[in-house]
Amino acid sequence: MNLEYTPDQRAFRQEVREWMEANVPREKLPSFDLTREGFEAHRDWERKLNEGRWGMVTWPEELGGRGLDLIRWLIFEEEYYRAQAPTRVNQNGIFLLGPTLMEFGTPAQKARFLPRMAAGDDIWAQAWSEPGAGSDLAGVRSTCTRDGDHYVLSGQKIWSSRAVFADWAFGLFREPGSERHKGMSLILFPLDAPGVTRRPIERMDGEQVFAEVFLDEVRVPVTDRLGGEGEGWKVCMATAGFERGLLLRSPARYQHAASKLIALYQANKDRLPASMAERVAQSWMDADAYALAIYAMCSRLAAGGTIGLESSTNKIFWSELDMALAQTALDILGPYAELRGAELPGEWLDYWVFALAGPIYAGSNEIQRNIIAERMLGLPKG
Asked: H/E element holding 368?
């Protein structure tokens, strides 16, 4: 694949680079999963991005974006990671719900939700998984009972990303008595609504990445349903395609990590075996291959194509690439990987701990391999 940029694309890259250099905080922001203060600091960064019209560059201008194509989004992401800008606290909104709203939302829903999402005024959580339904979304039991022009929501969600401090959530609910893929709807609901209870779930490091969400007869207008009634499975599969296949994990994340891995190797190569150079090179090639594959996908989408079943292959690739990058870094550092503090390499240990979750979230890799076997390769069910 011969990847060349047009003069306009190169000019756009320069515009992004100059803005980032002038506006990215010099000091790392506190974690948005540890305290309300850290969360609000990241919300302020989302607002700063919106002031520069960088909230989500592919959205139409009237909805808070710049109306740019996906190739320019990839360029933006490369410059974003190059500048080591803060992690997007609203990634569930802008990368998952936002594109789904573009596809299934009414004009009124788009006008109501997307500009506030781009501005950081509404931060979104994902409320899909349940205690008895993790990767098997068709097994959700939380219900939406129609009562005139409202739904009454009841049930429990778990592992809801960003739900501790977020403002809104998008969840999957089913009509009472329905089973599996039928009778489900995707419904948007405020996390401060009467009847909603949030309980933080702490990781080993104390960060409140997730929350349990309990819904006790929560009333939500029917107008806050995304897509048709009972069409929640179709809508959620579109969201899952964005999550697994493209938007949630841009190639720039892995290219940036691969560049840092090369620098780490160069600083330690005198004491490392020759085989380590091969592992570092493989990680760099895999990151580059993923980037080229996504550029090809974006070109196909621009020509009117869709994200198909390859979203499952992408998800497996990027999650296992993340683990390979982190494991290689830890093997280079050896016992020093666990040291923390100023000028110490503890960040690679944090990267590794997070990478371990990659094969689980966004649909476990075991489930993705089943999808590939059955739907792409046509193999019989075991």
From this structure: helix 365-371
**Which is the catalytic residue, given 77, 78, 175, 243?**
243
Among candidates 322, 331, 317, 327, which has minimal Cα distance to 355? 322
- Whose tokens are 């280079």? That residue is 332
The encoded tokens of residue 290 equal 């993923």
Instruction: Check residue 291 and give left, alpha or beta (phi > 0: left; psi -120 to 50: alpha).
Output: alpha
Contact 262, 229 (CB under 8 A): no
pLDDT per residue rounded down to tens, the chain (382 residues): 567 889 999 999 999 999 999 999 999 999 898 899 999 999 999 999 999 999 999 999 999 999 999 899 999 999 999 999 999 999 999 988 998 999 899 999 999 999 999 999 999 999 988 987 766 777 889 999 999 999 999 999 998 989 999 999 999 999 998 888 889 999 999 999 999 999 999 877 677 888 999 999 999 999 999 999 999 988 887 776 654 456 667 899 999 999 999 999 999 999 999 999 999 999 999 999 999 888 888 888 777 777 667 778 888 888 899 999 999 999 999 888 877 654 555 688 888 888 888 887 777 888 888 888 888 888 887 6
Q: Give the Cα separation of 102 and 21 in Å (integer).
A: 31
Q: Identify the CA nearest to 212 among candidates 141, 163, 171.
A: 163
pTM: 0.84
Burial category of 1 from C-beta neighbours within 10 Å (exposed 0-12, middle 13-18, buried 19 and up): exposed
217: left (phi over 0), alpha (psi -120 to 50) or beta: left
Q: Is 270 exposed, middle or buried (0-12, 13-18, 19+ CB in 10 A)?
A: exposed
Between vectors from CA 278 to CA 274 and to CA 279, what angle results, nearest 5°?
110
Tell me which residue has tokens 């501790």.
164
CB 70 within 8 A of CB 58: yes
Active site residue 243: yes
* CA 173/CA 183 separation, integer angstroms: 8
**Closest to 33 in 3D by CA, of 223, 162, 188:** 162
Would you give the DSSP letter of residue 246? Answer: T
Residue type for 259, please? S
CB 237 within 8 A of CB 186: no
